[in-house]
Specification:
Elements lengths: L2 E3 L3 H8 L4 E7 L4 H14 L7 E7 L4 H7 L6 E6 L2 E7 L3 H12 L3 H4 L6
Parallel strand pairs: 1-3, 2-3
Antiparallel strand pairs: 2-4, 4-5
Length: 119
């Protein structure tokens, strides 16, 4: 599917309340770590593991009303929403933690996250 830009607060609110799993990358053009992890987010958006999720990005400078609405304090910040509720958030360009966030809330890999207790 790829990553689609969100440019207006109305569009953002409509998407997060759509009933779908929405993964959003809040980034800035001047942010080095944002540019480093952007290809990873793009690659994850194409993965079959996250076929049920939709991937978006918000340029915090061009859409400052959205970043203010959700309280972005650092870039990049990744958020996962469904039915208007924020399911998870990650601040920072850590590809391992990003994959873990997406597996937990948006992926087919949810079973991997469960730990089995041995007696």
């Amino acid at each position: 599917m790829g990553v689609t830009p969100i440019t207006t607060l109305d569009e953002f609110n409509e998407l997060i309340n759509s009933g779908k799993i929405i993964c959003i990358d809040f980034w800035a053009t001047w942010c080095g770590p944002c540019r480093m992890i952007s290809p990873v987010f793009e690659e994850l958006s194409e993965s079959e593991d996250f076929a049920e999720a939709e991937f978006y990005k918000v340029d915090v400078d061009e859409a400052s009303d959205i970043s203010e609405e959700v309280g972005i304090k650092a870039m990049p910040t990744f958020m996962v929403y469904k039915d208007g509720e924020k399911l998870g958030e990650l601040a920072g360009a850590d590809s391992g933690k990003l994959k873990k966030l997406l597996n937990k809330h948006a992926g087919a890999g949810e079973e991997e996250e469960e730990e089995e207790e041995e007696e």
